[in-house]
Design brief:
It is found in: Cell membrane. Helix content is about 75%, strand content about 0%. It is mostly helical. It has one domain. The radius of gyration is 22 Å and the shape is elongated.
Length: about 180
């Protein structure tokens, strides 16, 4: 019996230690964040010298692109920090006042809601950009079918987010 318990203990310790296999994935997300930073800076450097010649519509499209990239980068940070703390290990250092308020407080349900909210925001910005391109002679406008599908996909994200929030709310009510 003691041998069976020792085997079970080793198995459980190994299973628990396997969470560290996620660490390289979070490191990969750091690289992805660096890639997004490079793309953001590339866009900024490309359009900043044109600021005096850009049309108001084109300026809005550029700003929406930069906001889109920033939201995606924020999403990456949330997934990296929350995922690491929820599934691998707690951060053991004191970041002081620089530590974001939500760090250490976002559980899997909160992470899921932040994720869907970010996806809806990114999708909405992308859809708005495509609608704004309709009158832009420099940009080939999307056809009606493409716009319809983009709208359907965006609404699917919105409905999914509402349903996930409803499920979380119902689950919270049922555990009280």
């Amino acid at each position: 019996m003691a041998r069976k318990q020792a085997l079970e203990d080793r198995f459980e310790r190994g299973l628990f230690a396997s969470r560290w296999l996620m660490a390289p994935m979070y490191l990969g997300l750091v690289v992805a964040l660096g890639m997004m930073t490079v793309i953001f800076l590339r866009e900024l450097v490309h359009y900043a010298p044109q600021v005096l010649t850009l049309s108001p519509e084109k300026t809005i499209l550029v700003v929406l692109t930069l906001i889109d990239l920033t939201l995606a980068a924020n999403l990456l940070l949330i997934v990296m920090f929350s995922g690491y703390e929820n599934f691998v290990s707690k951060f053991d250092f004191d970041a002081g006042t620089d530590r974001p308020d939500w760090m250490g407080k976002v559980d899997f349900g909160g992470l899921k809601m932040k994720l869907i909210a970010s996806i809806v925001a990114i999708s909405g910005i992308h859809l708005l950009k495509r609608f704004m391109e309709i009158g832009d002679p420099e940009t080939p406008a999307a056809d009606d079918r493409t716009l319809l599908w983009l709208t359907i996909i965006h609404l699917t994200f919105v409905v999914s987010g509402v349903l996930m929030a409803l499920m979380d709310w119902l689950q919270a009510r049922s555990t009280k």
